[in-house]
Specification:
alpha+beta, OB fold (Dihydrolipoamide Acetyltransferase, E2P), Deoxyribonuclease I, Chain A, 3 domains, seven-stranded mixed sheet, 11 helices, about 15% helix
Length: about 600
Amino acid sequence: MKSYVLSTLATYLASAAALSIAEVNGPAWLSPYNGKAISNVTGLVTAVGSAGFYLQDVAPSNSAKFGKKSFLSSGIYVFNSTAAKTVVSGDIVTIGDSRVTEYRSSSAYIYLTEIINPTNIVKVSSGNTVTPIILGKTGLSPPTTQYSALDNGDIFGLPNGASLLSTTNATLTPTKYGLDFWESLVGSYVQITAPVALGTNSNYGDVWVRGDWKVTGLNKAGGLTITTDSSTSDANPEAILIGDPLDGTNNVDVKLGDVLGPIEGVVTYAFGFYRILPKTAITVTSASSGVVPPTTLVSKGSCKGITIGQYNVENLTPKSSHLPALAAHIVDYLKTPDLLFVQEVQDNDGTINAGITSANETLAALSAEVAALSGITYSSVEIAPENGKDGGAPGGNIRVAYLYNPTVLSLTPGTAGNATAGTAILPSGALTYNPGRIDPTNVAFTSSRKPLVACFTIKSSKKPLYAINVHSGSKGGSSSLHGDSRPPINGGIEDRLAQAAAMKPFIASILAVNADAHIIAAGDFNEFSGVAPQELLEEVMYDLDVVAGIKKEERYTYLYDMNSQQLDHILVSKALSKKVKALEHVHVNTHGAVEVSDHDPSVALFKDIC
């Protein structure tokens, strides 16, 4: 049985020449003492959890001061639930014998340096003051643009996973790289004096925050937006996750932009992210309103002003509980766009796998709800997929579809395609199948949604409008931005590249027939601007956010982890780009406390397509 003896100051003095915690941690990602036995480590207990406690050097050495080329963390986690019951915050203790280990629960994660199997824990004194390291403009501030030197300046660049932090094991540079910064503080007791929530709580109650330090990508709602271009990307390494309180309380529910009370706790790494474990639950000192205004963009009902909307309706079925709220969003917030691109429409029986693939009842139910609220009865366009071939929830057969106002637009007469027949452009400008799918048998679209093409006619001008509805392959299989692989694995990017490569020549073929064609491609591309799949499409189309002059910080339709981000895009042909009046992302889901969908919708107004 291990002994946890409480002794006297004499024992403490005898250990004066022992290893410091900073020396145990070392200057790189892995401890130089990994796997080795150590003895007589002395420190101040800063916090205690159920399975261990956090120990910090009583008097950090000069080598442990932040701002040097290398920084040795002066804090560490001592893993042992029995030992945790013998100490309290403010104790100075000496651990007689123990072992250093590098722990992670997944090979995708970064290692956490720990002291394990402690014996002969000697309490030297009690009631000592635990002073936190201040994180903020009056203390230490994290880097704001780059996560790691191994990302080569572009965290979303290819190839993914070219290096591993654990293999390279470079000396930390905490003044330059975000992961190095947080690693250099692991085990330390810190305080964030003015945190702001970057979104709602995770399923586990965790909350991403920023402090009053310098940030980049700050949007009007108080969140941090991913910004990218062709050679660099900024995914906000200055954000930090607030995890489970050490006292067993629960964090309160928050939303984007809520101002929180000061947070004190210890920095650690778990479940793929650096995080601060607060001593007690976070509090809200000033709640954001969560009020989102509706779009200001309203149709003129003719070619003088056409509105286009796009919305991922998140696994919609005829019986979805969120269907009425979605209809209300379309009417109240989007002002019933003339043409609405929708994604994640499930078949008529949802996830019941009875072989039904049509979504005509789903679309009719949504249209009926919209009509009841607005008096506008949408017509719909879809092509039912082959059963089980388009990904998504098993049995649901999600697909993309259109809703359109038949008083403003009509579906140009033609032969409707089917699940496996690809459409093409004819010399006349007509489509071989209308509606039709782009190259649906291409392996790029295996177990993924196929783009749906439809040619509409603007009734008041008789002008054609080509629409391409997109829901590209998911990011499933991505690794954490705080993971070992650098750059992180951007799950499914190879599929999305291949899908973009299939769409690009189809768009080019329309432009070859008519260079002034009005083409709009919209939907959930599952990718960020400036990343390879989107760059490929932008060789033949224009990003509407750029055309409309939307600030980079306001280009987001989704909240995930620490980032406001844009997965949903609208691309337009050169001729149509000259007709753009305005674009608005309606943040009705990302800003509010209640999400109807996990994506925000967008609305664009085009003028004088006459």
